[in-house]
Design brief:
57% helix, Fur-regulated basic protein A, Fur_reg_FbpA
């Protein structure tokens, strides 16, 4: 399993299925973009 698939699996587990702003599917995004979504999701939970 590659790193991109792991990032996608983590986001799916958190209930994130696509990017909110553009509506792009997770598989269309780069590893960096996926990591930012994972990192950003944690910040939103604290607010």
């Amino acid at each position: 399993m590659d790193r991109k698939q792991v990032f996608i699996d983590v986001l799916l587990h958190k209930g994130i299925y696509k990017e909110e702003k553009t509506g792009r599917q997770l598989y269309e995004m780069s590893e960096q973009e996926l990591f930012k979504l994972i990192k950003g999701d944690g910040e939103n939970e604290r607010d």
